[in-house]
Amino acid sequence: MHNWPFSSRENEQYTESYPVQLFLNHRGFERASETVWFGNSPSDVPNLALGNSDPTIFSAYTGPDNGLVTGCVADTENGRGGCNSSRKTGFNRESIMALLERDKPPEVAGCRDWSKRCAKAFGASTSLYDQNPLTKRFTGDPIADSFAVVARRNCGLLAIADGVNWGEKSRLAARAALHGAVRHLNRYLALGDALPDTNKALSVLLEAFVAAQANILRIGGGLTTLSVALALPLAGADRSPQFAVTCVSLGDSPVYLWSKTKGLRELTVGSHDLCKARDMRDAGGALGPVHGGKEPELHNLTCALTICDPGDVLLLTSDGVSDNFDPVVQRLAVPWDPAKHCQASENEPQDRPAMRPSERHQYGLKLMERVLLERELELNSVPSAQDVCEALIDSVRATTQARRTLLEDPARRVRDAGRRQSLAEKLMALPGKLDHATVVAYEVGLYQGDEFELYEETAALRSAPRAPVPGGGRGPRASDLDSGCASDPDCCRSSAGPAAANGVRSASNSSDRRCSCSFAPESLSDIEFADTDSDCVME
């Protein structure tokens, strides 16, 4: 067993009498965690057999402002001649069928209708920036984030891209990356049996990044982060209704899984070093023309795998959401300064606890989880994917409201004219980070036609054997990954998952946690394609 770089005794020393001490309890950290395997390639994680995916799409939604459907990204794919196509004048069956076929909506990234959103597959995006009281335009427009979710009867595809910096090229890069990746993945999911195991699924996800990069370069886009996730049924899911979640991430758009009984965990924990403070201005990696005009920055490219139950919610966020749950950003804590042995820096107030990077990460998860639980109490029912998105967006808007109010105050603009230092000092004292905020979520389960159905209640009894893991024994079930007791203060359950004995990295092996600079391939050309046609990348 590997211990985290801080103990509960140390937490008590630096957070005594602080109202959120419970969130920093070491045992709570262990108890809340679930096994997440991660690395820089599919071979770094266990290989689990998957069942067939149902190609029937019941929901497909993208945004904001029609997301990947908008603009030249969609136009370059459907390739239809528009009004230039000639009509046949005859009324035979062939001519009528040709007219009907021509009048169908164009297929964009593998879907014909991207407006089919529902409570089980949803996304939301907003700007947290201030609005100019005169022009009514938001600072940072247009929103450079883009998201997409495609929900099939027993599987789901989610993707989120966050354009680096502001401007039209950043937004175009995000939409192009999303378009290329989703199109590539939909081709596999439509076949039903093209993803036999999780290693193949992760390989196809990496190929989707190649398609995304090619699409950005083809249309002349800027830089963007990209995170893509698949929720797929495990083999034998008809007897043991469990699902594998595979994801690949590049940049700072995290992927989370929220279990309504087990709590919230981050799947992209391997993309950043929890022992070092993260610079929120640096995404860590990006697609687009970074090096030499052709190569992306793959500094923190990460593959991850975990297991979940029906009813769990898979969600992807931009850093505009995740960073606003950081306790330092919320002005609940100050960064831990190792040079001063946990003492706050001189220009920071002393009435807030100093937190290490790992403490900030865990506390941020707890804050996010608390928002979801509060929404559950408010609704008096289990939150859907739509409820999850709306709760997180409402929360980050509330966190940043004071900053917007200060910047949008016309009297302040006159009063503080020429006094930028005064304004900067006021902003530093206020919580929140102004950014574009995007969330996309999918409720994992077997869809029966009712978007308000509770998957966890209709799932079969979980009594079948568990999924095998290479190296002997059986893999963890999401229902028994955490054998610790929430009410027993002496619980000493080991956090090392069953993969630890097999030499597989997992999020519960903290001292073996990867550094964000040590596992990146040199280029996307190093990714090997398996059983794919050349036109699967980009036409």
Topology:
Layout (H helix, E strand, L loop, with lengths): L7 H8 L10 H7 L4 E3 L17 E7 L8 H7 L14 H10 L12 E2 L4 E7 L17 E8 L3 E8 L4 H22 L8 H22 L4 E10 L9 E8 L4 E5 L3 E4 L19 E6 L3 E3 L4 E7 L4 E5 L1 H4 L11 E2 L18 E2 L1 H23 L5 H24 L1 H6 L4 H9 L7 E8 L11 H4 L81
Task: Characterize the structure shown.
The chain is an alpha+beta fold and 539 residues long. The protein has a domain at 32-68 and 105-320 and 435-450: Phosphatase 2c, domain 1 (4-Layer Sandwich), CATH 3.60.40. 27% of the residues lie in helices and 18% in strands. It is built from twelve helices and 17 strands. The protein has helices at residues 8-15, 26-32, 72-78, 93-102, 168-189, 198-219, 319-322, 357-379, 385-408, 410-415, 420-428, 455-458; strands at 37-39, 57-63, 115-116, 121-127, 145-152, 156-163, 224-233, 243-250, 255-259, 263-266, 286-291, 295-297, 302-308, 313-317, 334-335, 354-355, 436-443. The strands form four sheets. An eight-stranded antiparallel β-sheet has the order 1-13-8-7-6-5-2-3, with helices on one face. It has a five-stranded antiparallel β-sheet with strand order 4-17-14-9-10. It has a two-stranded antiparallel ribbon with strand order 11-12. Helix 5 (168-189) runs antiparallel to helix 6. Mean pLDDT is 75; it is low at 1-33, 79-90, 460-505, 509-521 and 529-539.
